[in-house]
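Hi R.,

Here's the input for the 1-O-phosphono-alpha-D-glucopyranose complex you asked about:
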Amino acid sequence: MKIEKAVIPVAGLGTRLLPATKSQPKEMLPVGRKPAVQYVVEEIINSNISQILFVTGRKKTSIENHFDPDPDLIKKLKESGKFSLLKDLEYEKDVSSFYYIRQSVQAGLADAIRLAKNFVGKEPFIVALGDSMIRSSDNNNLLKRMIDAHLKTKSACTIAVEEIPKNDVYKYGIVEVKDKTTGNVSEVKDLIEKPEIGKAKSNLAVAARYVFDPVIFDLIDRTIPDDGGELQITDSIRLMIKRDYKVHCVKLADGEKRYDIGNFESYFKAFIDFALLDDKYGYLLRQYLIQKMHKGELQHD
Ligand code: G1P
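And here is the predicted structure with 1-O-phosphono-alpha-D-glucopyranose in place:
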């Protein structure tokens, strides 16, 4: 069996990033040279998936424009001999099909995923959150490892997880694993969305990537909204486990890193790390930071 479809939820309002997101989607904020969501699409393409559905919302049309080839721009760049810029636009051609559907009411991640039901059909599929980037080495793509694990373990759901500081558990879905672990793959015993510090059973956080069998849609339909009236996908996965479906998690490998742009602190950190890796400007930026450090300009006041 092959997994050929991915869903990228990008409907969130981005209120934690106002005013930067007043009139543009947070997923289009630049991280280094590219908008954040382009890294997510490239990660999916690297795992050999060619059909991508965006679950969008109001004010998200610039995402559609970004992935829609622009013949006028291409013509102008060709005429003026700007071939390296043309190369930078090649990402538009890499996916055979982009699809879009709108979530008109903010009713939670599980509700956004539910909108993918007709697109998905009968095969397993990927969900990759559009505001989170995973930096893997080229030949060790996390999604590929998750797909392998999903098919091998015959799971109904496979989740990416990462170890986080114990004081941050209230920001994430937290996973409790069974004892049986093969390499970085473990069976999930239970999971809970954003527990209080002290009540979490581990420091393994859900890390923005999922593989699901279509049975998830039945479980989303049975999920009870949280106190804020939103349907949490963590609660749908929990129902899966209660009904004896197998759920596994795959831990991020050493050197692999998750970035999210959900708030200014994490966005700034992501920007700095990706800019430092830039082929042309990374070196100059490093020199700049070293100079600032020597002048004492990076010290606290
Ligand atoms: C979502 C999920 C949460 C997960 C997090 C990071 O939360 O609900 O389980 O740990 O993404 O992948 P959000 O950041 O949208 O509040």
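One thing worth noting: The longest helix spans residues 264-276.

Cheers,
M.
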